[in-house]
Specification:
This protein is mainly beta. The protein has three domains: 50-212, Cupredoxins -  blue copper proteins (Immunoglobulin-like, Sandwich); 222-360, Immunoglobulin-like (Sandwich), CATH 2.60.40; 380-536, Sandwich (Immunoglobulin-like), CATH 2.60.40.420. Helix content is 9%, strand content 38%. The protein has a six-stranded mixed beta sheet with strand order 11-10-13-19-16-17, with no helix packed on it. Strands 12, 14, 15, 18, 20 and 21 form a six-stranded mixed beta sheet that branches. The longest helix is centred in the N-terminal third of the chain and has 14 residues, at 25-38. The two termini are 33 Å apart. Keywords: Metal-binding, Oxidoreductase.
Length: 538
């Protein structure tokens, strides 16, 4: 398997269970934030606002309704200071959306951003339309079509002409029908309009989705505080997110890491107490190898789920590795009193501080010995479709202008070159995202084997691979089998000599439509390291 003084969760859920959360605009969002803050678990540690389902006449009619209001907002980042950035409902991160399998998630999007420039000078694989967005429910097995998890939609702002006439701000609707057998776990949402994704997520546009279910009812987990730990990576200069105008933007603009909108917030943990942390890597450019360390001491993280899929039993970790977009659910138990820090390799400052107090829980809280089955494994004997290969490749300094590097996805069904007889290293189309070209046609019901690798030679240059709509079972890393294999929707690939490779099995289920496979280092995705997949009837 890959290395990778509080109010209880029951009280939190009781306090929100009766809410009719049909949010309409910022005022309602602020009320929801105040309610969540009043019941935050644990005390003093920041938690996002919470929106939960309401039931009008039984489980069949459960729905979650939330308005996501997007506009430039002045936000105070505790530990950093004031910034101006695009937000969901005036906060970083946006509200946490809690649903159950079988629920309907109905979102109203208000675009209060300024008009986009009328023209984009450049190809589609360069940043553009920074004030348009849409919505992706990252990791969820839901429809990619219509008004659901459809990344081809555009939620545009007013045009300059309409703004001058005083037209109302545009509103858009997303309706997600969560399947009745959807795995319980931790997911997240973020914008995914090609050309604007990186700048918006680097400004804090992200939020957590919790699908509640069987794993939450395990007695040892139900007794633990349920804590969202959403890690954002903000690109800030002079209190703003500068426009993504050149290839040097990622390295030239400092990253500020926040947890639930604060720099290095502190959380309390009593000796013998167990908390459940939902770790979310809402980072655009940086992978996180996380450790909990103090003065020559460590706190063990007992991982119970990866990317929303539960393990068979907790796995003790000295470190948990999260690529950009990954999530991990972990149980943390207070041990020796003292201060510990959640740190990530390569990040100078701690992400958060943990204070284990002398106060103890008697008897100490226990860890579960076994967990409900998350998803059954696939077997190579079930393969019915072709093998596929994807190579994540960069040709440096081959283009003129502000974005000289070519980010490509090669291997099976790469996007064809503009000039097959020319220099492919300088070809503007070869292996780069083309929204009109279907790279992979995937038949419902098929099980296929993919091998994804990077030919990067620098270890720090990573390419996390993400597939929309269907989770995949990683069976091998660098040719070595994993025992047991691990379900993912995003898997990190570091460079090296050679670079990392993974092999996975995937079954395409339930939903037809256009979706994406891409690198989740969002600089690379924005500049073309992305492919179109189409799920079709058999």
């Amino acid at each position: 398997m890959e290395e990778s003084g509080a109010i209880s969760r029951r009280l939190v859920l009781k306090s929100i269970a009766g809410l009719a959360v049909a949010s309409e605009g910022i005022l309602t969002a602020q009320r929801a934030a105040a309610t969540a803050a009043a019941t935050a678990a644990p005390a003093c540690f920041p938690q996002p606002a919470v929106t939960a389902s309401r039931s009008a006449s039984g489980p069949a009619t459960r729905t979650v309704e939330q308005t996501l209001d997007v506009r430039f907002t002045d936000v105070d980042i505790p530990g950093y200071g004031p910034i101006t950035t695009r937000t969901y409902n005036g906060a970083i991160p946006g509200p946490t959306l809690r649903v159950r399998a079988g629920d309907t998630l109905r979102l109203t999007h208000v675009n209060g951003l300024p008009p986009n420039p009328p023209f984009h000078h450049g190809d589609h694989n360069t940043p553009h339309h920074a004030n348009s967005f849409n919505l992706h429910t990252h990791g969820m097995h839901v429809s990619p079509s219509g008004d659901a998890d459809n990344i081809l939609r555009e939620f545009a702002p007013l045009t300059e002409e309409d703004a001058a006439l005083g037209a109302p701000e545009p509103r858009y609707t997303t309706t997600i029908c969560v399947p009745a057998d959807h795995p319980a776990g931790t997911y997240w949402y973020h914008p995914h309009l090609h050309g604007s994704t990186a700048e918006q997520i680097a400004g804090g546009m992200a939020g957590v989705i919790v699908v509640e279910g069987d794993i939450d009812e395990v007695p040892e987990i139900e007794a633990a505080d349920d804590v969202v730990v959403c890690i954002n990576e903000l690109k800030l200069r002079d209190g703003e997110v500068p426009a993504f105008t050149s290839g040097s933007w990622v390295t030239g603009v400092p990253s500020v890491f926040t947890v639930n909108g604060a720099v290095n917030p502190a959380i309390g943990l009593r000796r013998g107490e167990v908390q459940r942390w939902r770790l979310v890597a809402a980072t655009a450019f940086t992978a996180l190898r996380l450790q909990l360390s103090g003065d020559d001491r460590y706190l063990t993280m007992h991982q119970i789920a990866q990317d929303g899929i539960g393990f068979a039993e907790p796995v003790a970790r000295a470190a948990v590795v999260l690529a950009m977009g990954n999530r991990a659910d972990v149980l943390v138990r207070g041990d020796e009193p003292g201060r510990y820090e959640l740190r990530a390799d390569g990040v100078d400052d701690p992400l958060m501080t943990v204070v284990v107090t002398e106060e103890s829980v008697d008897p100490p809280m226990q860890l579960p010995a076994a967990l409900p089955p998350g998803r059954p494994f696939l077997d190579e004997g079930e393969i019915t479709g072709p093998d596929r290969e994807v190579v994540l490749h960069v040709d440096p300094e081959v283009f003129d202008g502000a974005f000289p590097n070519a980010y490509r996805m090669l291997g099976s069904n790469a996007t064809p070159p503009a000039d097959p007889d020319g220099d492919l290293t300088r070809d503007t189309a070869y292996g780069r995202f083309d929204p009109e070209y279907v790279n992979h046609t995937l038949r419902l019901g098929d099980v296929e084997r993919w091998t994804v690798r990077t030919d990067e030679t620098v270890p720090s240059h990573g390419h996390p691979f993400h597939l929309h709509t269907n989770q995949f079972l990683v069976t091998h890393r660098n040719g070595e089998p994993l025992d047991p294999p691990v379900w993912h929707d995003t898997v990190g690939l570091a460079g090296g000599a050679p670079g990392d490779s993974v092999t996975f099995l995937v079954r395409y289920q339930d939903f037809t439509g256009i979706a994406l496979a891409h690198c989740h280092q969002l600089h690379h995705e924005e500049l073309g390291m992305m492919q179109v997949v189409e799920y079709v009837e058999p």
